[in-house]
Specification:
alpha+beta, elongated
């Protein structure tokens, strides 16, 4: 499996949510928890993990979400989402290696984006966790 395919499988639920589609699986509750309490993590399961198993990727994926700072729009935060997978043997390879992918996104209560671009700015310069 190409790295781009791997990343797309992992990120599809988040990309769908950012486009206004309903987010399925356990990623939305994880991001809500991080938005509220500052961080959350779990081992990926459900629909996304099933898609990975279809691609012969059996190793568990740890998902960690950290709030980088609160945004001006009430109930919104900038989140860093990280996916880690240990000792993966990619197709057509024999040496296991670790995989790591991370990105940041603006997340508001219920998964909606900030109401405006001004709302997507930190509450204070430098941010507030």
């Amino acid at each position: 499996m190409k790295r781009a395919d791997f990343i797309l499988i992992l990120l599809w639920p988040v990309l769908a949510a950012s486009q206004g589609m309903k987010l399925s699986g356990e990623l939305a509750p994880l991001m809500e928890r991080a938005r509220i309490v500052g961080q959350a993590s779990t081992i990926l399961a459900g629909e996304v993990a099933a898609r990975m198993r279809e691609q012969v990727i059996e190793q568990p994926v740890r998902v960690s979400v950290h709030r980088l700072h609160r945004l001006r729009d009430p109930g919104c935060a900038r989140l860093k989402v990280s996916f880690d997978q240990r000792q993966v043997i990619p197709p057509n390879e024999t040496t296991p290696r670790d995989r790591h992918t991370e990105f940041a996104l603006n997340w508001c209560e219920g998964g909606r984006p900030p109401a405006s671009s001004d709302g997507a700015l930190p509450v204070e310069p430098g941010g507030q966790p």
